[in-house]
Amino acid sequence: MSTEQSSSTPLFSELGLAAPILKAVQEAGYETPSPIQAKSIAPLLEGRDLLGQAQTGTGKTAAFALPLLSRINPKAKSPQMLVLAPTRELAIQVAEAIQSYARYLKGLHVLPIYGGQSMGIQLRQLQRHPQVIVGTPGRVLDHIRRGTLKLGELQSLVLDEADEMLRMGFIDDVETILKETPAERQVALFSATMPAPIHRVSKRYLKNPVEIRIETKTSTVDTINQRYWQVTGTHKLDALTRILEVENFDAMIIFVRTKNATAELAEKLEARGYSSSPLNGDMNQAAREKAVDRMKKGKLDILVATDVAARGLDIERISHVVNYDVPYDTESYVHRIGRTGRAGRKGEAILFISPREKRMLFAIEKATRQTITKMQLPSSEDIADRRVMQFNQQLSETIESQDLAFFQTVINDYQQEHEADPLEVAAALVYLVQKSRPLKPVKHVESRPARADREDRSRDRNNKSERSSPRRTIGSAIRESEAGMQTYRVEVGRDHGAEVKNLVGAIANEAGINSKDIGRISLQDAYSTIDLPEGMPKDLFQQLRKVWVCNKQLQISLMNASSAESFEKTESSDSPRKSRRSGKPRTRARDKARRPSQRRQAQKED
Ligand code: AMP
Q1: What is the pTM of this model?
Q2: How wide is the angle at C-alpha 183 spanned by C-alphas 177 and 189, nearest 5°?
Q3: Counting beta carbons within 10 angstroms of the beta carbon of residue 24, is it exposed (0 to 12), middle (13 to 18) or buried (19 or more)?
Q4: How much distance in Å is there from the Cα of 583 to the middle of ligand 1?
């Protein structure tokens, strides 16, 4: 593998951060400092003021939090660091990030304070002597005026998203707070843009600041068709699964931010039937080269990579680049998408972007002087069309390449014996073949946000009396699954005392399925239905059948929209991990016909 390692990017371990902070960063799986981190950490550690032009998504929180936390004394019980943020959401998010970077600093407390939260709660929390406060300007000023927040010992003050604070009319409050802080405190000001009033604040309150602006070098990328999907309610993984279903890709590279995420996502894609591998800086050179070589040879279709590991990657087959996590800057975007469109070919680039990261999208468009078009997620109809097309293709290939004489005899005998209509026989066969990956899979359930998902589950948990609600009827239990998911039935329901949390806990713990990957759960009286990722390996399925919940074994079985089918009665002839068909998940199970007794039993249950 050829690499274009940038010798100028330092390692986190070389930056002089305090050991507990470094430990937390390494645990977070950050491979190298982002550009803003590489430039900010050293001067902030030296105690210098800083003026940084950077937006959300560049890693600016860690850029100030890591060095400023390294300088804090957790034994001293007064506020030493104050971060001002424009919104309650940002304050909470930043406080959480700081808390995670400070997790090995014993005795350190981080407190978010923002308008809208009860004063009483905040007063109690302030009495616990937090050393780091993250707040919105109005509420911070309230506490200063009431004497409940004293900044006499403050070492550092961070103004995060200063232009937003200006836009929201907080700039006077910010100045008042600045005046309340000790003269020798260190100030770091971050802003995506530098309008005049922000410039004025920086001139007045920052002493000889280091000025940092992330360069946006770009090269043209005309052969690459660029699209973005606005991350809304749908989980990113679900969205990716749908895109993988319909995009005609040869090989794909998916960019994520952390080493941990490369492994996690590659594993999830593998479980969904795509031959995938992580590519990160923790893998030794030989392992990385092996992954790249397998992709070159067509033995691997998806690499899930960090920026560092994918530097200079040159594989002609890569037809698609997916920016699953937004890049830090326009330069790394250009570099990432340059992994496709190699050797004069055309390439496709897809960017996942959350509403908060919209600015990065505009910055990329501006820097590349190209428009990135908005894309819609493929609908269930698109997915069905694609699956039918793939099926037809496989059918033609099989007719052309296989000796079917024996199978013709089998069908001929059957047809004569039952006087069956040949079209009906063929349709029944198609039905059997597609059962584990239905040709008409999903009634596209539009955008279920993660939070709604959780709320649904807690509703289930809290409202056992909702028995008559339509969502709880048997009819609603036999419903279509979300993309990338299959609906299973378990023989444990409300009558056995089961709650959603019991099912989630048992499946997550016993089967090692991440609870985030467990989809909708519908509790019925005698049984329940549950959505799990498509392509469950058979051994895992067998293991789940025997799991006990509320003194009953789950006896899990696969359902689909039209009927309840037992997975027990299916047999996998080709494992999902074996097939090497590009751009499509491998077909998993070929189903054995049901015996009449089983059919009767199923009809009774239906
Ligand atoms: P921010 O710009 O501070 O909002 O950070 C955006 C995201 O980047 C957060 O999810 C961070 O966890 C992540 N992040 C920050 N620094 C790094 C890094 N050096 N490597 C990987 N991810 C990072």
Answers
A1: 0.54
A2: 55
A3: buried
A4: 30
